[in-house]
Amino acid sequence: MTHKISLPFAGGFVVRTLEVSDLTDAYLAWFNSDYVKRGLNISTRAFTLFDHMRHIEQCRDEGFLLLTIADAANLGLNCYLKVRFDKTHKLADFDLAMDRALQDRAELLLNASRVLMRHLFKRMGVAKVKLRINRANAAARLYADQSKFQLEGVLRSEVLTPNGKRDDILLYALFPEPK
Q1: Could you identify which of 1, 7, 90, 177 might form a hypothetical disulfide with 127, taking C-beta atoms 3.0 to 4.6 angstroms apart as the criterion?
Q2: Annotation: CATH topology of 6-174
Q3: Among the listed residues 6, 1, 10, the one whose alpha carbon sits nearest the alpha carbon of residue 67
Q4: How far is 9 from 155, CA to CA, in rounded Å?
Q5: Could you tell me which residues come within 8 angstroms of residue 98 by beta carbon, excluding any fewer than 6 positions away?
Q6: What is the pTM of this model?
Q7: EC number(s) (predicted)?
């Protein structure tokens, strides 16, 4: 079981563990949108409240971090951050999805990302964070560039999209800053 985290950052926001109480109807509708499913490369089926509750428990049982960004009132925004660990090799795989309505607030995601990456590198001893992005996702590519992730390669025709088309996945990596 993984630990709960709460990482404050600029503007009174916090990166914190995603809780069942965050699973509002609005969150479920957002998560079930084609926009999020394509961005996360997940199944096109609709995820129910029960599915999400089970997902939260499974992630905790398997030692993943499943996070959201919350505002000063501790209300979770439509933001999903998932970190999977390879403890043997000290690697982390990072997935994220953010509501389109928040994209004009890129600094919010960048600040949240900075505090989370600092936590992964300094507190958890991670040596490399990997990020997989659908080539068609321009916003995610911009995020990777602005967050100083480095492009490491391309997996051609790696995923099947909801419309039946195959898309490439871009592999990015972030390393801790040299001491």
Answers
A1: 90
A2: Aminopeptidase (3.40.630)
A3: 6
A4: 34
A5: 77, 78, 79, 80, 109, 139
A6: 0.83
A7: 2.-.-.-
